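Board work, copied verbatim: Potassium voltage-gated channel subfamily KQT member 5
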Amino acid sequence: MSLLGKPLSYRATRRDARYRRLQSKFYNFLERPRGVKAVLYHMIVFLMVFMCLSLSVFSTIEEYEAKAGIVLFYMETVVVVWFAIEFILRLWSSGCRSRYQGSIGRLKFLKRPFCIIDVTTIMASLVVLGMGSSGQVFAASALRGLRFFQILRMVRMDRRGGTWKLLGSVVYAHRQELITTLYIGFLGLIFASFLVYLAEKDVADTKFKNFAEALWWGVITLCTVGYGDMVPQTWQGKFIASFCALLGISFFALPAGILGSGFALKVQQQQRQKHMIRRRQPAATLIQALWRCYAADEHSMSVATWKIHQIPLPSPQTSRVMSASFKNNASFVSRLPTIRRHKSTSLHSPAPAPAPHAKHRYDVNASAENLGELHTAHALLNYNKMKCINTRLTNHDRQQ
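↓ predict structure ↓
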């Protein structure tokens, strides 16, 4: 019975849980590919799209136009049906997310950029297939160019956008340097094109007929493309072109070096962060074991507010165990930077007597003796564990 006195339907609850679980599996498989099966599926989709684009190229060649057109028609049919079913599964499985539940949520899912691309390419492919299987139709149809957008689906293999985030972080981190170099390079382009235009505009049969063509020459020259379709003919134009090319190329090449060094530094920073995350847990365990080892010493004068080792070891047997356990590591404990405070009546007042209600904690000799032995064994175990972890960290640093 529920809180309202109504019977609960366990079968409906189980059925709904299985339904949600199935939706979640399909959504993670299509939208968040992880594992070998998901990666293989998306690679197969990429190969199918690439084959369609290759056949589209071959359909424009006269020698392969007929054969490529027939194969392309059947290939397009399979791809369109495949992507239509996949799109329906994506739309259905999006209901596992709270933001995409209901009709309004489905509309939000359809408004995503990649969903718009999917709908556009599927509709364009259906129109092209409806017009016929002729190779000329595939080659000449303007809608056929929309099939190129299918290649953008493979960009979604990086669901979390790690690649684009890395690129954006590098550009943002070096935005000042990039803006400076681009600004100086743009000024160099304008001045070089204008000076060459002034030197070459009055020459007979010149190709620098206007400033726009001079700008084209400046872009091709400063970007080190060098088509050779436009060259200065006068010695004034050649001198200006040589001087501006030497200065302009240096500024146009700087952004590539800045981005390259930024990528290298970012990758190094990510590797350092991963290394620190891997060492965080061993370091925390080492610090904890070190504190327990120090707190287990009966001569420790720590003033910490929380002390698990508050009971001295009254029996001779436990005293011998403690002296034997800390005989070898006394020098290690003495190297700790903690200040050992000696007992002094002038500085410290005597410890107050335990409260009556706490008598069963601290005044029972038998329990104190057993607890002291247990703490001693625990401290020895933690000290050995600490030495093992320290040895592993040292070997790891040497390997690095």
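The CA atoms of residues 56 and 172 lie 39 Å apart.
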